[in-house]
Every structure is written in C-alpha cells, then in structure tokens.
Amino acid sequence: xxxxxxxxxxxxxxxxxxxxxxxxxxxxxxxxxxxxxxxxxxxxxxxxxxxxxxxxxxxxxxxxxxxxxxxxxxxxxxxxxxxxxxxxxxxxxxxxxxxxxxxxxxxxxxxxxxxxxxxxxxxxxxxxxxxxxxxxxxxxxxxxxxxxxxxxxxxxxxxxxxxxxxxxxxxxxxxxxxxxxxxxxxxxxxxxxxxxxxxxxxxxxxxxxxxxxxxxxxxxxxxxxxxxxxxxxxxxxxxxxxxxxxxxxxxxxxxxxxxxxxxxxxxxxxxxxxxxxxxxxxxxxxxxxxxxxxxxxxxxxxxxxxxxxxxxxxxxxx
Length: 318
Prior knowledge:
The chain is an alpha/beta fold. 42% of the residues lie in helices and 17% in strands. The protein is globular. The protein starts with a strand and ends with a helix. The mean pLDDT is 94.
C-alpha cells in the first residue's frame, strides 16, 4: 500500500535539482512514492530528474512537453498520485531525512484531513525558522479557525503547499487542485479554499523543509505581469467569502489580506520597468473600484495609517 505521494515539480532548476533529489533519497521508505514532474524544462533539469528517478526508490516521472506553470505541474502530480496522503516539495527545495515519514505519523495519529507544518527559510547562509501562527498545536481544530481575524497572522496567511500533508479525501474532492491560469499567488486561493471547505486540521511543530528564498529565477522574484495574478486570486477569494454562509466573519479577514498585499506590491513597484509599474497601479485601482464601498470602508478602518493612505490614493485614481 502506498501511504504517501510526494509531488515534486521541477522547472529549470539544474543548480538545485541534484540536492533536492538527494534529500528525496534520504526520505525513501516503504509506502512512499515520489511523483517527479518536469514542467518542460529547457536546461539540464529534465535529464537530471530522469537519471535521479532511476536511483530513487518509488519514483515516477511525469513530463510536460512545454512549460505549463507550477499550478499545472502540481495538478499533474495529483492526478498521478496513488497515496493515502499527499504532500509537495518544490524542485529547488530540500527535505530533511525522514521528514515525510514523520508527516505520515503526525496525520495518522491526529486523524484529521490535513496538517500544517513549520519550515526553515534559507537565504544564502542564513537559516530562519518560520512558524505557522495557530494555537493550540497538535490539536485537531475546525479549519475555519485557521482563518482568523483582520490584522492578525493565521494559518491561512502561510499558504505554502509543501508546509503540510493532506488526506486522499481532499484529493478526490478536488480541494487540492490549483487554478492553472494563476501563474503566481496560486497558493493563496488554494489555502483559503482548503480552510473553508475541509472538515478538520491541525498544526504541528515539524520543520523538515528548507525553503530557498531570493533565488533570482524564482517566481517570487520575477518582475513581469505574472506578478499581477495576486489580483484575480484575491478577487476569487473574496467572491467565495461573499457566497459563504459566514460571509460576515470571513470577508473582513479576506479584504484585509488583499489590501495588505496590494500595499506590498505598491512598495515593490519600482522593481518593474516604468510602463509595467504604471500598469500594475492601474490594474489595482480598477480592482479596488469593483469592490463594494461598505467593504472598502470597513477594511480601511483596520489598516494602519500608512497602508490606508496607499489604498485611499489608489481608490481616488480609479
């Protein structure tokens, strides 16, 4: 029986793929399969993954003829996965030896639908522990308790798919699928749906994933229109909240999160070429103009003065 499927998308990560594959080998165990997805790489990644899979117990390879994006790669992995549980790892990250077996032990002992975990952020030689904000730990809770309130961090603010383990029921229900038209910020829409529609979850203190930050060719570092996808991602989150029976409770948190991310992107605006920076500002302004005025007023009241000024200026330009 396959207990766990580990889905690992790779795209043009020839510098990091060998280390990632070595970490998978350190996690090989009976009942664990590794679904390696090459997302149309144009460097040596494909050959590295193909060769590595031959040496990795329980490995299979899914190949895309051309680059389809992280969401599509993860979805391909989900379709190929056969395990009772699934988890993810990115092709430029590393898992500590035995981490995946500990994940399975955690979710089986807690008997819940998904478990969120901490991770170690890697930036050059720096190592920082990043923890999921939720209490209590090691206790099964309603997933909506992980959404929280405006102005306070919560599990839904840590959307990394690889920071957790998920039951087969969530796969079969389609709750783990990613929106393939979202080239970035796909995980925000994903984590909100999971917390709104699953039935049980827990947070535990495992931190076996080392996540690389500030990699120059990472999607988090690109300065093109792919970064604009945070706008439709959050518009979909807001639409889901409005349609929910608990809209009054969920919307303030979703709106606050959206406005906070808008301010983050505006602070990063100078990274873009001048024309693209202006386009970003215009796209944000149009999105804000579509929001109900009462929701905007309520959210502005939660924001700190600096963020409130940024959003108010964008609204005035809409």
